[in-house]
Specification:
The structure is a homodimer of 211-residue chains. Chain A folds into 2 domains: 58 residues, Orthogonal Bundle (Arc Repressor Mutant, subunit A); 146 residues, Tetracycline Repressor, domain 2 (Orthogonal Bundle), CATH 1.10.357. Chain A has 211 residues and is mainly alpha-helical. The radius of gyration of chain A is 19 Å and the shape is globular. In chain A, helix 7 crosses helix 10. Helix content of chain A is 82%, strand content 0%. Chain A binds a DNA duplex (18 and 18 nucleotides) through helix 4.
Chain lengths: 211, 211
Amino acid sequence: MSDINVKEMEEIANSDTETLIKAAAKSVFLKNGLAGTRLQEIADCAGICRTALHYYFRNKDKLFDVVFTEAFTEIHKRVNGFAQSDAPVVEMMKMFAADFYDIAIKDPGIDLFIINEFNQNPERMRKIVCGENMQGVRRGFLHYIEKAVENGEIKGDPIQIMITIVSLCAHPFAAKSMIQNMFDINDAKYEILMLQRKAYILELIEKIFKQ
Amino acid sequence: MSDINVKEMEEIANSDTETLIKAAAKSVFLKNGLAGTRLQEIADCAGICRTALHYYFRNKDKLFDVVFTEAFTEIHKRVNGFAQSDAPVVEMMKMFAADFYDIAIKDPGIDLFIINEFNQNPERMRKIVCGENMQGVRRGFLHYIEKAVENGEIKGDPIQIMITIVSLCAHPFAAKSMIQNMFDINDAKYEILMLQRKAYILELIEKIFKQ
DNA sequence: GTCTATAATTTGATAGAC
DNA sequence: GTCTATCAAATTATAGAC
């Protein structure tokens, strides 16, 4: 759960420049996207000279690929971890959602970042994500739901069910900025709203799928 | 419902250059976002010289503002239209969702476009959306739900309920590209999936909120 | 490894002929 | 109104000193 962030902070603390650059690049890419990001902003964020970026990562695209791949892989691992569990499917969904909210509350930009870059350059993303990762998601989460439907544990189209779960988890974070504007709330209030929402969603999943 | 698209097509058919440019700009901005869009691509898409864009809209920002405002206003009108209805709240939710899916299936890029530009430049968006539109949403949809909660028609936090409805409607379209990659489906199959999903969501809303 | 200086490229914007 | 030619600015990338 929380040892990811501890690990990240340790990495940054006693970091070589390369790790420092990756952390800075991640935060700037998440904020601005690939097209909207200036290398200068990454350099400023890392507190180094802009040309050092080229020394470590040759060019902007390479740096982006590294950052995106790491961010995506981190999410993928967590999604796939649940595939090993043999809990009842509704419990697994709740565990998935709880974990998703825990991560997203700490790092709310990642979901929009991924769906957005996927949208703007599907080919590139397909190459980065390279089958293995995505098929992991499919084998893990979707396959688990498929089995539960076969067993009669739950009813419905597995794909629709999966899209429902992911929508309920991801969209409140993807639309963070719009939600904040719509309801006129600052970052602190938004975080509270999402913490409350975590409990709300766990109940909702139970209500929807418990037979 | 469908006369929007007819109207759009008529506009483009017997269009002046200005309308032609706006249609081209909308499609390119939706695909690439503001930062990722090159004026040359808009000009190519409209089949005109790049400098003509400056004649009509002075600069990139002005063109973007016009396109974004029109796109947002179109959505806003539809969301707000339901505020006038006096149907039971669950019926209103279903009408909202049905209409949302009808529009989004025809024009699936608009949701990601809006939340993404909101994320990248909240201040700018706030200025464009200029209070009035967003407060319209608030007064319309949210206020309606608040009243229903007060009346005991439904239970729960109105804001959480609204985020749930919007997530179920918007996210399957915002994450279109990722869904297509995850489940390995082309545009045609995706459209069928969303048509099926429309029916699925109407049932789901009933299941969640009907007491 | 890190910096300064500079090149190369892309992109947005303007001027002016027609 | 639309085009060609041109300018100006921003941004990425490289070369070379230290």
